[in-house]
Amino acid sequence: MPAASAPMDVAEDGQWTMPAKDHASLRYSGLDEIDTTNVATLRVAWRFKTGLNSGHEAAPLVVGNTLYVVTPFPNELYAFDLNNPPAVKWRYSPPVLPAAVGVACCDSVNRGATYADGRIFFNTLDAQTVAVDAESGTELWRVRLGDIDRGETMTMAPLVVKSKVLVGNSGGELGSRGWLTALDAATGEIAWRAYSTGPDADVLIGSEFMPFYEQDRGVDLGVHTWPPDAWQLGGGAVWGWLSYDPELDLVYYGTSNPSPWNADVRPGDNKWTAGIFARDPDTGSARWFFQWSPHDLFDYDGVNENLLLDVQVDGHTRQALLHPNRNGFIYLLDRRTGEMLSAKPFGHITTSTGVDVATGRVRHVEAKMPTFGKVVRDICPASSGAKDWQPSSFSPRTGLVYVPHQNLCMDWEVIEANFISGTPYLGVNDTTYAGPGGHRGELTAWEPAAGAVVWKIEERFPVWSGTLATAGDVVFYGTMDRRFKAVDARTGELLWEHETSSGIVGQPTTFRGPDGKQYVAVLAGVGGWAGAIVSQNLSPDDPTAGGGFVGAMQDLPQYTGPGGELYVFALP
Amino acid sequence: MCSRCRDRALIGVLATLLLATAGCDRERRAFRAQTWVPATAPQVSVLRAGPGGWPAASPAEPVATPPSRSNDQPFQTNRWAVGEGKRLYSWFNCAGCHSPAGGGGMGPPLIDADWRYGSAPHEVFASIVEGRPNGMPSFRDRMPAADTWKLVAYVRTLGALTPKDVWSARADEMAEIQRESPRSGSAGAEHPRDTER
Q1: Mean pLDDT of A249-266
Q2: Which of A235, A324, A467, A513 is most open to solvent, judged by the fewest CB atoms within 10 Å of its CB?
Q3: Cβ–Cβ gap B99/A546 under 8 Å
Q4: Residue pair A107/A80 in contact by the 8 Å Cβ criterion
Q5: Cβ contacts of residue B32 below 8 Å, gap of 6+?
Q6: What are the chain A neighbours of B105 within 8 Å (beta carbons)?
Q7: What is the ipTM metric for this complex?
Q8: Which of A305, A550, A558 is nearest to A429 (CA)?
């Protein structure tokens, strides 16, 4: 009997209506037609090229007999007829400002759309949220929520909770002030907005706020844990994943790094960046907060996925939340209160010796703490973390979390940081390279209760795709060097792989087609921060290019070119 | 001193003076040239750097090309200016988008041979001042023209478009930044503006 389980049983309907499959963000399908005995015969059923070269990070959605895909900039929404694939029922093209490409930190990606109540919702690179009729493709409403002149873009996939569409911005590399906004699903009107920095009134911190730890209690900490007015350029962007517990009626999401990367100019804990909020979805009011990385030193954003799991801890079932962080630790928090239950390393770490149990604070290694005029080397994890945005999955059958991630270290030099709106606000030079062992990617099967690795697969490049777990005991993931793979969920044994036309940084999903068969869909098309050397034609001669990531990826062009293509697989 | 020795000494002095004068141009400092781009220059920018303001609309006329006399394109072979340009490249956050060593990131690489909007000094100048449609911000009114020309000179060394003796000295920052030796084989060729794109 696994020590970790899904918080509630949801009947499998063969669809995939939101990127994480469900509000608990488990990315698990109950479909079992494809299993360990037959996955070796999986073959391409149909394909479709998007004609775009940026990184394709979205999750293909399936609602009824239609498959939906959002492309990277210019963010086209395709609806495919599953009765006659790859026929395109309709394509919706939003108007998107081309200049937004110049303020997108990490390739012009989009992590996907979401579906609710007959509407498809997604964000555009130039910070608009769009609602489209799922049947006809007609635009229902479109609102501009951010300003590209202030470095604000949007790349995240929305989450719909109780007739509100929750969306967040990107821009933590440009001094943008982060926020989570709730829009009325029917009209697009703003219901509430919770900033990640600033006074309590802006952050929607009120009488309901009960953070577990002492350091998070006080008035206007989003102001006072910064130098005067620095919170206005403070980052804390909400560009990652949202989860929701309908029983506790709480939304969970993380905030990005504080701005700028140069930590010397922003002494203080820099609340409420690099942490996780629990909020009431109706009002946005904050219930609790936990900071993964107070006064973040290394661009360790806190926006990675939060899997809602019930976990056996010390003989009791805890309503928990599992979060693999950039800083190298997989956290288990009590999702009612924000209490940290455990924080265990899942990668090589030189920046800290652990997380203090009493305070939840990271214990920094003095020698790795950057400061002005010094180049600090062998910083592990690198700024992209032991793991970046690419989401994990969970199987209630094995009780394991399948974590796609990387093994990278970096050199980091703090220099002067100058703020010019619409340009990067960094104050750091850095370069990244492979961590110990030389392999740059890993797929880790993790047992949440013990906080331990069960098996690991090493890959040449960062595993920048999401993972998918199924009731057939198969885990799917893709590699940047053009392999879509199926492994045994219990042992990690490779059962099947398929060579795709470009590397994979998308999220695999699975569904039941109109013919009753199980299909697996994934977008190929390398890019994103890790793949920008290919998708954006960066120079391999410069290891500091692409925010330092090129240093670790100089050989990627030898393994893949760019080019988006949707792949759908099935059994013969 | 014997007359022949004096002749040799004179030749030695003259040679030294000649060499010194030849290097003078490359090392000349200009401390007074701080002018702003004239307000009448047409605007093509879409993204405006700096506080406030929505993007300016596209102009009716094309960008004016200044005459190619060296007076109007100062610093292009001046080593001091290139060094100043290197400092400004970090100062104005060019490094943040184009990378500290010019390899690119949010913005395209500057050390390869691909110059979408042209590599000539006046074209690079226009890119910085006017901005460009796919996200290069406009630095009009945010950067004096003299600083812009120094940046132009530096950016062109990234593309190996100026004589090597003009390139700035080794970086004071982390050693991975080797701006002074682009290795991409196709760099070093002037590239006219690609009007087809």
Answers
A1: 98
A2: A513
A3: yes
A4: no
A5: none
A6: 105, 532, 536, 538, 545-547
A7: 0.93
A8: A550
